[in-house]
Amino acid sequence: MFGSIGFTELILILAIVLIIFGAGKLPQLGEGLGKAIKGFKKSVHEADQIEAEAQAQAQAQAAPAQPAQIPTQPVAAGAAPASTPSGAPEPMAGQPAAAAAVPPASKV
């Protein structure tokens, strides 16, 4: 953005600012600008700290909470598994259960 502005252009801008605001107001403007930049940097740093703390807290909560393992029991060849709802289709041999639960798309 400022890559095309040369030294001459910066001097011209400074001269215009000096004419508009006067020599007495320039120190006040510089002080206000400095405080604004300092406040911005401080708020960015605080936001980074808050984000890092939240991430550390999330990792600490996720580590002890391991999912419980459900023991699997073999199903007899003629019996239906108890966890399958009565209206749900049975998975075919060689297909995962999720693929069998999706109905085929109807052709229009």
The overall pLDDT, averaged over residues, is 76
Per DSSP, the total helix count is 3
**Beta content:** under 5%
Order of helices and strands: HHH
Can you tell me the overall shape? Answer: elongated
Cα(first) to Cα(last) distance is 55 Å
Largest β-sheet summary: none
* Count of β-strands: 0
Evaluate the radius of gyration: 34 Å
Stretches where pLDDT is under 50 for at least 5 consecutive residues are none
Helix percent band: 40-55%
SS-based class: mainly alpha
Task: Name its key features.
elongated, mainly alpha, 0% strand, 3 helices, 108 residues
Summary of the model, kept short:
The protein has 108 residues and is mostly helical. The protein has a domain at 27-63. 53% of the residues lie in helices and 0% in strands.
